[in-house]
Write a structure and sequence with these properties.
2 domains; alpha+beta; 10-stranded mixed beta sheet; Umud Fragment, subunit A; 205 residues; 33% strand; 10 strands; elongated
């Protein structure tokens, strides 16, 4: 890695040495040594952490050429999306904002922010506990679409079914262990749709 590359990326992201060090899990002095070339043999796990924090690929950060030359493999161009907190896949939980945390995502993904899934009520949609769910901000969704929904200041992720003629909203899980959440009449005033779930990311275990 060219020492100037790391410095340029950090400055472009508006990060101080201390802020980047905190995200990578090292010291400000170590980041400074990476930048001025004093340390050239950076451990692989730190390369990955630096790339993640700066929303670039490890190859781009290190200046490596791609080893891939296949039609079905492409380099991933990324953008940073704010992680706003956790969202329940089960009973609604409070969605605590974490505006200082960002998640790297494909720059072509039409999403505005992301949330961490908690619980198992959406496993039928292949969304598991700990998955990152990408949300596009919008205040309504089509019936059957999965949305992040706020209920009395608590957040949940469910399939949404709205019946305006009956003033009825059904938030349906994707796990038979959980019953749908049904809201009628004035109960709808306490509900707000944050946005549509457009993608999710799971870890391979």
């Amino acid at each position: 890695m060219k020492a100037t590359k790391l410095h340029e990326l950090r400055k472009a992201r508006g990060l101080t040495l201390s802020e980047l060090a905190l995200r990578v899990g090292t010291s400000k002095q170590t980041i400074h040594r990476y930048e001025n070339g004093t340390i050239t043999n950076i451990p692989p796990e730190k390369v990955e952490a630096l790339a993640y924090a700066l929303a670039v690929s490890p190859s781009e950060l290190m200046g490596w050429g791609t080893p891939f030359d296949y039609e079905n493999v492409r380099a991933l161009s990324v953008k940073r999306l704010p992680l706003l907190g956790e969202i329940a896949c089960g009973e609604p939980i409070y969605a605590e904002a974490e505006y200082e945390t960002y998640i790297a995502a494909d720059e072509h993904l039409d999403a505005d922010f992301c949330l961490l899934a908690r619980g198992d009520s959406m496993i039928g949609a292949r969304i598991y506990d700990g998955d990152t769910v990408y949300i596009r901000s919008q205040d309504s969704v089509d019936n059957g679409e999965i949305a992040a929904v706020i209920i009395n200041d608590e957040a949940t992720l469910k399939r949404v079914y709205f019946f305006p003629n009956e003033a009825k909203l059904v938030l349906s899980p994707e796990n038979p262990r959980y019953a749908p959440l049904v809201y009628l009449g004035e109960e709808l005033n306490s509900i707000k749709i944050l946005g549509k779930a457009v993608a999710f990311q799971s870890k391979i275990v």
